[in-house]
Design brief:
The protein is of the alpha+beta class. The chain is 28% helix and 25% strand.
Length: 255
């Protein structure tokens, strides 16, 4: 069932979103060659706690996961698209690192993701990250009252096709509010003018994920959580939580 939120609830989600934004920035600053993702996870845990919130991901276990999630944030390196576990293997110069963070404050959640280069990287990696970020921007722009969910999906898919990128089959965004994952699903591929009508009060997480190799296939790594590209190519992931207001989309996960 889809829940529509009031302006008062948007404000409460905005506070949770600020926690997420500050945590992503703290982790981004700490992501340097030689630093293991487990240390970045500790940075995230400390930041969320200092801001009086709690991590949405820690201990979370959806139906498909074999175990509760063991970290504060998802840290996905190179060919891992989403849900990468915070390992102790140090990051290397040029790695592509996706950082996905959720936080709950006062009963409401925020969820956002960024992808960054560790140290210097190559032009192809930068192009991948830029295209995925642009897809998010276009998806957000399409999140307007009177539109359709397919408008958001098409904006993301069109960007992938323009760049020759693939996307993970079956993975996309979601509703968000008093639970981290709510209805409706927010697909990254679809037809404009189709799907759920977008109404004022809808709060959703829009999250494009692109594969550098151009294929859509994925594989689940032995940890049962990490979703990687089937062809081993690098991936990027960007996300914001957004409220649909009478004036258009309001990004909830900004500093």
């Amino acid at each position: 069932m889809v829940t529509y939120r009031s302006p008062r609830e948007w404000a409460r989600m905005r506070e949770a979103g600020r926690v997420v934004a500050h945590t992503l920035e703290a982790v981004r600053r700490a992501a340097e060659p030689g630093v293991p993702p487990a240390e970045l996870d500790a940075v995230a845990a400390r930041t969320i706690k200092e801001m009086g919130a709690r991590p949405s991901f820690l201990g979370y276990q959806p139906d498909w996961a074999p175990t509760p999630y063991p970290g504060t944030v998802c840290l996905s390196v190179n060919d891992v698209v989403v849900h990468g576990l915070p390992s102790r293997r140090p990051l290397n110069e040029g790695d592509v690192l996706s950082i996905d963070c959720g936080a709950e404050l006062g009963g409401y959640h925020g969820d956002a993701a960024i992808t960054v280069a560790v140290g210097r990287t190559d032009e192809a990696a930068q192009a991948l990250m830029d295209a995925t970020r642009i897809a998010l921007e276009r998806g957000i722009e399409a999140a307007r009252p009177g539109g359709r969910m397919g408008d958001i999906a098409h904006a993301v898919e069109r960007t992938a096709l323009e760049g020759g990128y693939g996307m993970p089959e079956g993975w996309g965004g979601h509703g968000i509010g008093t639970a981290m994952h709510e209805d409706p699903p927010v697909p990254n591929a679809g037809r404009p003018g189709k799907g759920l009508r977008l109404k004022e009060g809808l709060t959703i997480a829009i999250e494009p994920m692109f594969h550098e190799g151009g294929r859509n296939g994925i594989r689940v790594l032995p940890d049962g959580w990490s979703i990687a590209t089937a062809d081993g190519s690098r991936a990027a992931h960007f996300e914001h939580s957004v409220a649909i207001t009478p004036d258009g989309p309001m990004i909830l996960t900004l500093p």
